[in-house]
Amino acid sequence: MEGTSNRTIAVFDFDGTITTKDTLLLFIRYSCGTIRFILGMALYSPLIILMMLRLYPNWKCKEKVFSYFFKGMPYEDFKKLGEDFGYKFRNIIIRPSMKERLLWHLSQGHKVYVISASIEEWVKPFFHTLGDVTVLATKVKPDLSGFASNNCYGQEKVNRLLEVEPERNTYTLYAYGDSRGDKEMLAFADFPTFIH
User: Fold this and answer.
1) Which 8-state DSSP code applies to residue 60?
2) How many other CB atoms sit within 10 Å of the CB of residue 190?
3) Is 72 helix (H, G, I), strand (E, B) or coil?
């Protein structure tokens, strides 16, 4: 599938690929405090177990947990939390080898996307100082009651890339991922890299 032009695109998953931790749980704990985090996780533990057993949809569990913690919070407060979180943790949980790889793609003039199932308000700030990186992530409703887009996971990652880069035969695609949520994107790429 190698492109017919010299254009190259690199796509990175975020959680577990660029970062060393899952940022959803880290962000909730950062935003809501340890006690509320533990109580909320205990409340939703049956759903989380069903999700881990693949008996309940990943996106639906994630949306319910997200809504429990953030529904009704003013959007501007939520956005500010995301910016503060990214600023605080970007030098702590970013994997140095993947940061180096991302910067290499940028130095080569490649178009770089980070495509993530996490929420764009806290993913984008991780890349403010790294250069021209476009983040395609899960979008939330203005009242934070749920998601305003499909959860950016699995095939949805490919769909989101094709929304902005539809002419697949015109570019060579590198992809980096670490989980089954990246399987379709890795299969779609010319040069896939699975991060162990």
Assistant:
1) H
2) 14
3) coil
Q: Is pLDDT at 5 greater than 70 in this prediction?
A: no
Write out the two tokens for 80.
């500010």
Say what the pTM is: 0.91
Contact 179, 162 (CB under 8 A): no
Sign of the Cα torsion 40, 47, 138, 128 reads: positive
Which two tokens mark 29? 């704990």
Mean pLDDT of the region 64-92: 95
3-state SS string for 107-152: HCCCEEEEEEEEEHHHHHHHHCCCCCEEEEEECECCCCCCECCCCC
Q: Under a CB-based contact definition with an 8 Å cutoff, are residues 105 and 10 in contact?
A: yes
Contact 41, 62 (CB under 8 A): no
**111 residue type, one letter:** K
